[in-house]
Design goal:
Number of helices: 1
Structural class: mainly alpha
Helix content: 40-55%
Shape: elongated
Order of helices and strands: H
Strand content: under 5%
Radius of gyration: 24 Å
Mean pLDDT: 85
Distance between the termini: 57 Å
Length: 61
């Protein structure tokens, strides 16, 4: 009986995941790019200029 209960709980959690979290993720990705991966057409370059001095290298010994 415990195996049947575990299977039912797993199936219920899967259904909740598919019906709630997957659509939320799809909608969130449609309206927002959390990692800023889309290229910006107004930028000529994505390089970042270093200002000032670099921090000293740490000795990892």
């Amino acid at each position: 009986m415990r195996t049947l209960r575990d299977a039912a709980v797993t199936a219920a959690l899967f259904v909740v995941y598919v019906l709630v979290f997957v659509p939320l993720g799809v909608v969130a990705r449609l309206f927002h790019d959390p990692l800023a991966r889309r290229p910006a057409p107004d930028r000529a370059s994505y390089w970042h200029q270093l200002n000032g001095h670099r921090p000293p290298a740490q000795d990892s010994r």
